[in-house]
Structure formats: C-alpha cells, structure tokens
Amino acid sequence: MSCEGSVAGLWTGEWQEWIRLRAVEAGFDTAGVAPVYGTESEVGRVDARRFEGWVDAGRAGEMEYLKRRNEQGVLLRSGVEVAMPWARSVIVCAVNYNGDGPLSIAPAKEGTGWIARYAWSGRAVEGEGELAPSDYHDEMLGRLRRVEEALHERYACETKCYVDTGPLVERAAAAKAGVGWIGKNACVLNQGLGSWLLLGVIVTSLEVGDDEELQIAADRCGSCTRCIDACPTDALVKPREMDASRCIAYLTIEKKGAIAEELREAMGRQVFGCDICQDVCPWNRRSPVATREGMLTRREMVNPALEWLAGMDAAEFRLWFKGSPVERTRKKRLHRNVAIAMGNSGEMRFVPQLEQWSTGEDEVLAESARWALGRLRRLEEERKAAAALC
C-alpha cells in the first residue's frame, strides 16, 4: 500500500531521528525504525525458519497465540507481512522499567516472594498517597497512539499499534531498528539502558530507503554466559534461544494447571515472573532507574510476604492487583505459585496455610500445597540430621 508524504513515503535518516524524538516526547526512552523483510528475501527466510524451528521444537509451551497460522499454514509471526501484506516498516519504541529496588538475587527477608520488576509499576493518583497499579500494556499503547498521531500529521499511511499483541516478534524488529541487540538471555539489550526494556511497535506502510544505512546495534555480550549459567531451570538452552516451557516467567504467569514437579524446586521464591537472567547481566549494573509516569515503583510489590499474598481473598486481590500485570495470572494461579514458594522457603510456619489449601476444592492448588508440605518436611528432616552431626 503506498503512502504520500514529503519524502515520497520513504524513511530517511532525518525522518528516523524525527520519529525518535516524537517517541521520547510521548514518554519512551528510545526508538528506531526497521524495514520489513519479506519472506522472499534472505533475511526474511532466515527469520521465518528460526521462528518456525523454535515453535516446532515445542519451545512455546502452551502459548497457542504464538502458534497461530494463516489459511496457507504459515505461522503469522514468521514475518510481519504474513498477517499485514501492506507492512513496509516497523517503528519500535522502548521504555525503561528498572524499578527502584533490590535484585531478586540479593539477600531478602525470610518468607518473602518475588514479583517480576516490570509488575512493580504504578502511577501517582491525585489526592492519594499510594501509587495506583498500572499495566505497561495500557501505558505504552497510549504513548504509541501519540507517536502514531504525529506520524499521520506528516504522512497519509496505514499503521497498526501493538504492545505484545501483534503478529510479529518484537525483539527481532528491535534489533533491526537499532534499539539494542538480542542478548544471550534472549532479551533486548541496550548499551545505555540495559535490558529492563518494554517494547511497543507501530507497523507502517512507509518504505525504508534502499540507500539508508540501518542503525543495527552491535552485539556486546562477548564471551559472557552469566545469564545461561544462572537460569535455575535451564530454560536458556543455548545463547539467544529460550525454551519458554521451562522459563519461570512462563511457569508462573502463562502456565495453566499444575507445574511439572521436576521444575518446582528450581522456582525458588518466584511467584510472578522471574528476573534472574537480567539480574546477573553486567549491562544492567548501571541501568538507570525508571522515573517516567506509570513506571514508578510500588513498594508493596518488592519482596512481598508470602503470608500476605496467601491470605488474599478475591476482593483484596482486586484491590492490590486490578490494573496491574499480576491481574492476568488471577488469584488461584498466584496462590499455586505461592504454595510452591512456601515449600521452597523451608519455613515450617507455613504448614497451617498449606494444610488448609491441601484439602480445598481447587485441585491444582491442593496438589501444589501437598507437594510443598512434603518438601518442607524433607527440608526439616535434613536440618535435624545436620544439627545432629554438629
């Protein structure tokens, strides 16, 4: 689909800088523009083969939306043009979400869980002392719309905005747009911002000029393998390839039903998401703290007490998590995760709560609680045996 504009529908270096400035004005920390490579191109074929191989290997777990195909049987996310034949470029906008708080691998009070850093986010509400929950999907979509409006003032072109919902692989577009390189932890890494980045995209029908030099970020992971070595569940099967079905973030957020027993001990105290592969990354040592509205840190989300989370009824869960990314997990899955974290804690004070859950109507929670009780008892026996040897 053609576009009309002052540069004949082409992205030039000058206009790419213009769109980056519009993105920063809208509340993003950086942005870039990537061309859409059709599946007839070598780059497009490589991307398509890589994604299809990842899905066929079962790496997507139960995330069926990643496996969707068109009528011809082609995976929708194997190439932007598969679902949007008019697409010619992708604007990738990134916002820093590095909350003001400790790392998940830092010493923490006994009996606390871990909620992923991106889910700490909140926004100030006039007249209230506490921050209200915010969800990056909503925050970023509003910002993308502002960038889109600025673009439409300059061009008559077709556009689509997406935050995690579009038929494309955002990190691949981000790498081509120069936002960062794909690190060995499979996250987008930016030399100045680190990997605490949330991505939003605007797919456009604007062409990128053939003579434009792409601002692709250099890969600066070098020989470092700290993220791969630190992953408790061995989800990083090789550099830049994650088996999502083993990832703690997937297990605690996306996975429905029971979590495989062989992965539970390795989950540690994670109750929503996981930050370990980013916590150990050297590029995150100097990552700036997020200060943008909607990305402020809700202190209650940092190292929350497992007892507090376990005691939440439906009304209290809504009070603390409605409008937050945690809302999508829902209370019963959060409690399943809390039960596993209680079992891994070694704290016998959690026995009464786990016993209550173990006889409840929710069979997934009940089974998780029974496993946790068994683990606590084994850990207690090991402690007693070790004390007897001293």
From TrEMBL:
Keywords per UniProt: 4Fe-4S, Cytoplasm, Iron, Iron-sulfur, Metal-binding, Oxidoreductase, Queuosine biosynthesis, tRNA processing
Gene Ontology BP, a term: tRNA queuosine(34) biosynthetic process
One Pfam family named in its UniProt record: Fer4_16
Keyword Cytoplasm: yes
Superkingdom to which the source organism belongs: Bacteria
InterPro entries: 4Fe4S_Fe-S-bd (IPR017896), 4Fe4S_Fe_S_CS (IPR017900), QueG (IPR004453), QueG_DUF1730 (IPR013542)
Domain 4Fe-4S ferredoxin-type, residue spans: 212-241
Keyword flag Transmembrane: no
UniProt-recorded Gene Ontology molecular function terms: 4 iron, 4 sulfur cluster binding; epoxyqueuosine reductase activity; metal ion binding
Protein name: Epoxyqueuosine reductase
Source organism: Edaphobacter dinghuensis
